[in-house]
Amino acid sequence: MGSSSLRRLFAAAFAFAAAWVQPGGAATLANLYEVTVAPDPAAADQREAAMQAAMARLLIRVTGSRSAPIDPGLQPLLAQPGGYMSSFGDDRQGRLRVGFSRGQVERVLTELGKPVWGPERPLTLLWVAVDDGAGGRALLGAGEPTDCGTPTTPGMARMLATVREEIVAAADERGLPIAWPLLDLQDLNAVTCTDVWGGFEDRIVAASVRYRGDAVLIGKARPGTFGTEVEWLFVHGVEREAQPLAGVRDGIDAAADRYAADLATVGGASLTLLTVSNVLTPADYGRVVSYLERQSVLESVDVESLDNGTLRLRVAARGDARVLERVLALGGVLRPAAASSSFGGLAFEVAPGGSPP
Description:
The protein has 3 domains: about 110 residues, Alpha-Beta Plaits (2-Layer Sandwich), CATH 3.30.70; about 80 residues, no CATH class; about 140 residues, Rossmann fold, CATH 3.40.50. α2 crosses α11. The protein contains 12 helices and 17 strands. By secondary structure, the protein is α+β, with helices and mostly antiparallel strands. The two termini are about 25 Å apart. Strands 6, 7, 8, 9, 10, 11 and 12 form a 7-stranded mixed sheet that branches. Strands 14-15-13-17-16 form a 5-stranded mixed sheet.
């Protein structure tokens, strides 16, 4: 059965799949190529300075490399950022908002052999405990911080706000989706301040399951000799990566570096064969095909057949097979199949309760 026949057969499935809503982990950053920067009052040409600063930040986001702005191979983009700009304006805070053409930037990066990290990105859940150095501790959450049995002093309030602002700014600069725990009764019955400060990561990870993130970042912040110091622990599956003494943004940078190493692609597209098993209903078909068509790492998706619940596709994909497998498994719709397929290429199966496309 060809691609066009399958699409006609399951056309109604797309309406159902689009309406199917369930919280998911990975996020797609629609504004990845829109960068906000503060104006440089010392610059003779504010517009040009803003474009160059925005391009430098964009290259860090999209290549996943913090050294991208000083990479000699990327200087042409930094020298003439206006050639890639799609919009320019300001926001209510007086900052400058610069938008760039995703297609143009990605094409140049691919031609230069540089990595491209697409807008589909893992979601990281943060558990951060703050010690003010004077006996007070609190947990940062999605709403107001939760104190750990001591009143929140003005000094603690300022420290909490500063730590949160630095984390959020770092995540924005790296294009990293983050989430904070609600710190509601369910959270606080499962995790205490002592758990976070004492490093009982198993309890924290168990409490994090409800948020369906891809990784957990645990931080213990305290005043240090040269500013706020944080002991970070990055938990990704069964792996643990510790930073015993670091700055506030270092945990975010380490997570982004790790994700980019796993998920960024290098080079143009090549044909890859995919098989997806457990495609048993029109809704399954609609969800899988719509999900694949929205992945930036795939330049084309062609359905070849659907037989006995096994969907076979031929895709033009950037990057090698290992990167493609990691990227496609991010959204919770597909998971690598336990057994390889005799069809060749990569084998997946529909994940139980998978996220919508």
